[in-house]
Design a protein that fits this description.
It is built from nine helices and four strands. With about 180 residues, it is mainly α. The protein is globular, with a radius of gyration of 15 Å.
């Protein structure tokens, strides 16, 4: 099931209004990247809320892309556009301190380190799977479009996604192997 145009429309309008189509990003613009991540998640059969989170995953910036479209005190605006569930996935993704979180991401009790608050918590299994799937879709988009990115980061990313394989859908894991193997 794919997030419908009606479901995506408010998010795309918000992204456009905040200038995502004007922000340079590998493969074109930030909006183009976000759209491709949403499509990738749809191709893997992700539920609509995760697809919408893929479309919006950079709203608060990320550990690897610090440009935020909205400050955290305006989270309600994104929640109004995509729903509370999708916004929570966006926040989780954006808040991840990757260096501290990635080593134990596949562990059911592995701490998730929030770079915004400095606190750690243990996400529920679904949230952990959502995070891993969104991470794979994001990195695969970059690796598909940029051979230099793939050459530099492909082995490390493949190692990460191999460690968290149990959190990934079969389709996501297959694409990780196909795209990231250098």
């Amino acid at each position: 099931m794919t997030a419908s145009l009606a479901e995506s429309g408010p998010a795309v309008a918000l992204l456009s209004g905040l200038g995502a189509a004007d922000i340079a990003h590998p493969g074109g613009t930030l909006l183009a990247h976000l759209t491709r991540v949403q499509w990738q998640l749809a191709a893997w059969g992700a539920r609509p809320a995760l697809q919408l989170a893929g479309l919006c995953h950079a709203f608060y910036g990320t550990d690897g892309f610090p440009s935020a479209l909205l400050p955290l005190d305006r989270r309600g605006e994104l929640a109004a556009a995509v729903g509370v569930e999708a916004e929570a996935v966006v926040y989780l993704y954006a808040s991840c301190d990757r260096r501290a979180t990635y080593p134990t991401l596949a562990d059911a009790d592995g701490p998730f380190h929030d770079r915004f608050t400095g606190l750690s918590h243990t996400p529920e299994p679904q949230a952990r799977r959502d995070f891993a799937e969104l991470s794979a879709a994001n990195e695969i988009d970059l690796a598909r479009l940029d051979p230099a990115f793939r050459d530099q980061w492909g082995p490390e990313l493949l190692s990460l996604f191999t460690r968290v394989r149990s959190l990934l859908s079969r389709r996501a894991w297959s694409d990780c192997q196909e795209v990231l193997a250098v």
